[in-house]
Amino acid sequence: MVRRRNLLSSVLLIAAIACSACARQEARLQQHREKFESLGASTKLIGEAWLAGRVSRTYTTTALERIYLLVEQERQTLAAQPATLADSRGATLSQAAERLSRDIAAMLQSVRGADGASVRRQLASVPIAPREPQ
Question: Taking the complete model, does pTM exceed 0.85, yes or no?
Fold first, then answer.
């Protein structure tokens, strides 16, 4: 009887630890997603402001370069733990963040070349942006 209680206690302790780890993983993924959404929203705001003529090309390229660096830093943080990328949600988020980096790099080239049509297309397909309220 005592042995069963010890076994049951051990199983419950392991389950509690596993649930705690899952909750931490979920919280980390949510935090990364929110950061990427913010960076995606910033990308859209800067691009739209440039298209509307509210900000200069220099301001836009400087801002996009900074956003690009922040996306890359966040991607590096996301990928620092293999368990995060092993989780399908983390892998999907990492891939979307990589696409965001590529899109920002392409947008930088388009702004430098004063190609508004390309910037408009790139803004329409920003992969990570805040969800619209329902």
Answer: no
